[in-house]
Amino acid sequence: FKGALLEGSTSTARAKVEGCSLLRFQRGRSRHRVKAIKERSFSQPRSHTKSLYVNATSGSQPLESEPGAYGGSKGVLDSVKNAVDAFYRFSRPHTVVGTALSIVSVSLLSVEKLADISPLFFTGMLEAVAAALMMNIYIVGLNQLTDIEIDKVNKPYLPLASGEFSVGTGVLIVTSFSIMSFWLGWVIKSWPLFWALSISFVLGTAYSINLPLLRWKRFAFVAALCILAVRAVIVQICFYLHMQMHVFGRSAIFSRPLIFATAFMSFFSVVIALFKDIPDMEGDKIFGIRSFTVQLGQKRVFWTCIALLEIAYGIAMFIGAASPYMWSKGITVIGHAMLALLLWNRAKSVDLTSKTAIASCYMFVWKLFYAEYLLIPLVR
């Protein structure tokens, strides 16, 4: 009995020791879990931390959250970002900015007195900008649809050339934007605006689409005329008449500033038409596009563009100096002199053997284009 008692006491003691050890192990494990949860609370959202506490206390779920819990939403967000970025490149943002600025600038030419700057003015201007931007996206999108193989050489970053957009997606975008542009022009019931959209649509389609007697971009002179007609004539005159006649209900008057804007932008449009093909010479040669750059060479066309712009700036300074308003005289003369100097300094530094350098200079010319539209409303 004494031996049995001793054996029982020993067993009891051993059980207590094992129980204490198990309790310490469970406490240690609990502390480890709490520590892990606290560490995760600094690196994960509060809602996610809450789910970890639930998992730790329930004991029925693993401590870590499922690896795909947030992966799906992140993937959707990345897809949206990529789609927006691709559409941004598809829209050719430098042309979008140029179109919007030109319409705002020309709209300001119709302002005769301070009272004209009213909600009516802004409504009419924004209607014109919205319709024109939709047509702009149609035109640049159609050009990309018909130039996919060329752009794989010249502009591989564009979404159709890179494969980010399918041809079907491109067709859907250009069709939708052309319909919305015409719909808005019809709803507004402004004939100058509707004619601006219609002529731009016809010229933009004829410029790009590969049908018999069309695809005018193959012919350097005709291609330049298309761009000049839209950028220099249609934008200045039609959108001015939209504001003058439809918005303000006045008779059509071709003012001195409007004539200046049309003449100056004729120079600029020719320069853009010539300059845009300089960095694209390689692809144009391969696919039989007989641009002036292909025919005459990059250097000759480049310096022709610079000379045309410098002549335009000289004429602008002369016209500005003849203004009867001293404030307009000072701003237009000094402003155009500064732009001419900036252009000359930039042109001298361009490496004509580098496609990247030429493309960068082309975008600089677009910035000068934007700057001109800031000066045009000040020509009086």
UniProtKB/TrEMBL annotation:
InterPro entries: AtHST-like, UbiA_prenyltransferase, UbiA_sf. GO terms for molecular function: prenyltransferase activity. It is a multi-pass membrane protein. GO terms for cellular component: chloroplast membrane. It comes from the Eukaryota. Pfam families: UbiA. Its main location: plastid. The keyword Phosphoprotein does not apply. Gene3D superfamilies: UbiA prenyltransferase. It is found in: Plastid, Chloroplast membrane. Keywords: Chloroplast, Membrane, Plastid, Transferase, Transit peptide, Transmembrane, Transmembrane helix. The chain crosses the membrane at residues 120-145, 165-186, 193-213, 219-241, 253-275, 301-319, 326-344, 356-376. CDD domains: PT_UbiA_HPT1. Belongs to the UbiA prenyltransferase family. NCBIfam families: PRK12887.1 (NF009525). PANTHER family: HOMOGENTISATE PHYTYLTRANSFERASE 1, CHLOROPLASTIC, HOMOGENTISATE SOLANESYLTRANSFERASE, CHLOROPLASTIC. This is Homogentisate phytyltransferase. It comes from Linum tenue. The lineage of its organism: Eukaryota, Viridiplantae, Streptophyta, Embryophyta, Tracheophyta.
